[in-house]
Amino acid sequence: QVQLVESGGGLVQPGGSLRLSCAASGNIFNVNTWNWYRQAPGKERGLVASIGSGGQTHYADSVKGRFAISRDNAKNTMYLQMNGLKPEDTADYYCNALGTYHSSYWGQGTQVTVSS
Fold first, then answer.
1. How far apart are the first and last CA of the chain?
2. Is the CA virtual torsion 88, 92, 93, 98 positive or negative?
3. Residues 6 or more apart whose Cβ sits within 8 Å of residue 101
4. Tens of pLDDT along 42-60?
């Protein structure tokens, strides 16, 4: 089992920045890919960014050039640096870990609101 706890959400004005954190514990050695998802009210949950065990990254087109995913292996923590935030970035953000045998773990989510 893997436990994930997100933090860092909040209210920010358009153009502002936030950094989300995802602290992992448990059997993280079997995790291959770390992801950030988001779900806006009335919409489906969608992938925002991912980082593989080799450090390769992937971003949704809507956040390319504004968001950056990273991972600190020593702290067992993943981050999502969000710059140039827009109202359409408002959503609940979820940390996800994909492991062996198709295992998938989720955090409880953290709310991000971009509004003036």
1. 40
2. negative
3. none
4. 999 999 999 998 899 999 9
